[in-house]
Amino acid sequence: MTMKKVVAFVGAARKGYTYEATRVFLDRLEALGGVQTELVRLGDYHLEPCRGCKACFSKGEEFCPLKDDRDVLLAKMKEADGVVFASPNYSFQVSALTKLFLDRLGYGCHRPQCHGKAFTSIVVQGFFGGDKILKYFGLMGAALGFDVVKGSCHTALVPMADKEREKRDEALGRQAQRFRVQLGSETPHVPNLLEVVLFRLGRNSVRIELDEKEADYRFYAERGWFNSPYFYPTRLGPVKRTVGRLADVYFARSIASKKAARRVHHQGAVPKA
User: Helix/strand/coil (H, E, C) string of 11-59?
Assistant: First the structure.
């Protein structure tokens, strides 16, 4: 059996209930066999806030002007077969540490590089709001290319009651089992109809709006995505194939039309005195 590597990125400032829940999840995962895990506390690494310069979008992530620990964390993600994002619920959103990390991964939503890797998430809250954070994590996971396994949200009042802790641990155990199944799957995720349409929208936008000077264009071209049915070889039924072709025609015409309209507008613009 090939050993699978899983890394969990925890955006909690201290070793509290979020850290504890993540540790339980990883321990349960290791107990299932064939898995090596690593827990990464984002607070132990230096991450600067994104400046919005867009260098990572236009030139490539290696041109980011910030010289911090982002690439160290990216290397851990690239080497892993599975990834976990864990955060406490702070003001009805992920923690600042977590958001700092996710913002630095923004280019990956344009150029997804995590296909074939499993993903899940853990949220710990005091009262409510965590379910929306789980949806956000799921959206980020999918945008980055992961095969997303539904995450879990846990209420942890202080002090945490024994029954509450037992309920949490059982839920994390079930989540670990689902995640282990995905880790061992040799079959890629079969995209739904919406995912097929979104892929066609993205690739037509890149093909028509950009050129080889842009990192997104080069990324798509190198992988043959301009001519492929999806990001990777997968089973698409006749309905998805047909809708995909129709989406290509519609998006290509719509994007080209808007691009032409912008060009006319700029050419006819009168500079202010």
Answer: CCCCCCHHHHHHHHHHHHHHHCCCEEEEEEEHHHCCCCCCCCCCHHHHC
Phi, psi of 144, deg, nearest 5:
-80, -10
Dihedral sign from CA coordinates of 121, 46, 97, 195? negative
**Cβ-contact 143, 231 below 8 angstroms:** no
- What are the tens digits of pLDDT across the range 45-78? 999 999 999 999 999 999 999 999 999 999 999 9
For 151, the token pair is 């995450």
Structure tokens at 185: 């799957």
The one-letter amino acid at 204 = N
Backbone angles phi, psi at 60, to 5 degrees: 140, 150
Full-model pTM: 0.94
